[in-house]
Amino acid sequence: MNVDRLVESLSKNATYKKIVSVPFDMIKELPKISKIKLTGIDKIKISMFVAKNIQPITAKVKKNSFIQFNKSVISDNKFKVPHAVRSKSWKNLIVDPEKAKEKKSDKKSLEHILQSVLNPSMMADMHSADDMLIRLYNYQRDDVQTLIENNYVLFADEYGTGKTVSTIAAIKLLLKKGRIKNVLIVSPSYFAGDNDLTERTGMPIGWSGHLNMWAPELSISDLSGTEDEILKGLKKSSQVYFTTYETFYGGLDAKILDSEKFKKIDCLIFDDVQNLAQAKHKLGKLFGSIKTKYIWCLSNMPLDKIQDEIEGILKPVISAAKSYLVASRKIKTDLAQYTPPVMRQDYWVPLDDVQKIEYDNTLELGRERIIKLVDAGNPFLIQSNVFTLLHQLKQVCNFGANAESSGKSELLQKHMDIIVKNNKKVVIFSQYDKLGVKRIESLFKKLGINFVSYQSGMSMKEMESAIKSFSTDKSVTAFIAGVKTDRVKVNLGQASYLINFDQWWNPVSTIKTEENVNNPDKNNPAQFEMLNSINYFVKGTIEEKIKEMLFDKGLGEENIIEFLTPEMINDLITNDEWLKILDVASDYDKSREEAKIISTLTKIQKFSNAEFIEKSIQFFTKLGYKNLKSEPTPIPNDINISGSAVKFGQEVKLSAKCLTTENADAASINSYLRDEEEKNPKGKIFILTPALFEEDSLIYHRKNVTVLPGNLLSKYYSLFKVI
């Protein structure tokens, strides 16, 4: 690094002149070319071919007072020093430690700023400490650093930007570094989550599901139930305690606050922090009894609607600590370069008592009808009758026959409150008229939410008129569609959120709905922003069994199914599997299916390189990719496959690596993925190998990455009849 040039650049920067005084004496005494030690550099994992290309690093100052490294420190953009932001701590020296001791300054001089940026030990440790962070988007990594470096934080980002995952990453890092011993998370009940359902469906459900998926090693206690049960939970030596606002408010009036364990909570996290306003008159007692190190507040509301109130609530504890609240807000349009086109989230609600009775009666009558068809030996009518029953059950899951509200409608009301206050627009789909669209319309009229609708029976001209009103009238928040989704296309510049109030069982149908709504204006790409696709399901119903079945078959993996047609998914589910879901006697035998997969694996492991590549290309063809070609690499048994598909009118590039040896190891795969994710962040990345290794030895990479070792590859080859 040329220090003189960097000093000259920084000294001319008006922003830094306002923030710090810059004594250059010590830096000018150094040689022109200085060696700078980066703490933690030995822990950053890179492959050998990347290490050979390391180049000198340069830096520049941005207007927002950040020091930013140039695109990369090596020629092919493979090796990255973690992004650094301003920090209150300046612990690590970039100059000779002995000389530095002789010339200490009370001011935050330039060398101190540079040491924080060029020696980002916490961020380096963060990346080496937990490989889950590789899967985070760049802005989420910045969020993690903001959390770990500040005691009091308010994130008021738009809904659906991934605050939950960023917060979990920060929790893991602080626990690992020993800065905290425990954390208490307070959340609305609808986002409490379900750990068991997460494991059975493969989708993280609420806080407990996200913790299970992103931090399975952490010990967690659920503080719910009676006062005695909560106190019992507090006595457990857990790292994470979780509770809802309802339970938390009750604890403010009970002896829970007097618990010694409660007083020793190191980190308090309030999700949907605006809920604190409901009990702010009681919070003085809370902050008077607990001496927490960190308080992190999360919200989906705009800062101007909540910041003053939250600062007022936290003022006693912040003032006592002689600190301040760091508040920030991100909007989705600013994150488009980092995020995928669609971010999907599932919510599960229970049936109410009336719905439960109607559901059980409907299910029993449907089962009786299907059993008669099975006994009559008429397999051709089984699937159509199963689907008829599914439609009947899904309508009951929406609303009871004579009810105006349900678990789904209450959840919709919460989501609409967020969307309205952020001045955003939403498209809401329901397959049903009376027990879908009509009930939603009635709810919105009561809430005073302006909307337009398109229902079956309306002409195309009427639909176009409704879409125009939705797109041009700022007072219209919602577009309610009760027709087949392939007839409705809404420009994404006008719709930030899609809510599937109900959806068909076939996951590809939901993906097609997203494609129709996620229809960005190619002439105005600046309008593009991520679509948040929100799906409502009901616990304790056939929807659980269907999601579990799809996950078990590997059809819950978006990277596998997203370019398939709904008809292809239909054909992959047998009548016997549908009968099993309905608890009707069938010939379904899972052991027979497993034996077929083992036989397929044996064949794969005997393939020559040419045979393995031929079958791999067949596999990607079945997944919907075109223009496929293979290319050998200089490394033996290492062959690349490239191709493409189309989504949202855009080309999606495929990068696949076939490791044809049974000796492929997880470390090599992880190294390749780190490199490939940088080259192809928006495309699809696959690893195919007959090798077997433990799933937990692989890094949880970003959503565009799919690793198929022998056990999973044989499962898909069998399912798609590649072999």
List descriptors.
alpha/beta, 7-stranded parallel beta sheet, 43% helix, 20 strands, 723 residues, 6-stranded parallel beta sheet
Structure description:
This protein has 723 residues and is of the alpha/beta class. The chain is 43% helix and 15% strand. Strands 5-6-4-7-8-3-9 form a seven-stranded parallel beta sheet. Strands 10-15-14-11-13-12 form a six-stranded parallel beta sheet, sandwiched between helices. A hairpin with a 2-residue loop joins strand 17 and strand 18. Helix 15 packs across helix 16 (303-320) and helix 27 (590-605) crosses helix 30. It starts with a helix and ends with a helix.
Report the major sheet.
7 strands, parallel
Mean pLDDT: 79
- Radius of gyration based on Cα positions: 28 Å
Low-confidence spans: 14-121
Query: What is the global morphology?
Result: globular
Query: What percent of the residues sit in helical stretches (DSSP H or I)?
Result: 40-55%
Q: How does the helix and strand content classify structurally?
A: alpha/beta
Report how far the terminal alpha carbons are from each other.
56 Å
Tell me the β content.
5-15%
Strands, count: 20
Oligomerization category of the chains in this entry: single chain
| Total of helices | 30
Main-sheet strand order equals 5-6-4-7-8-3-9
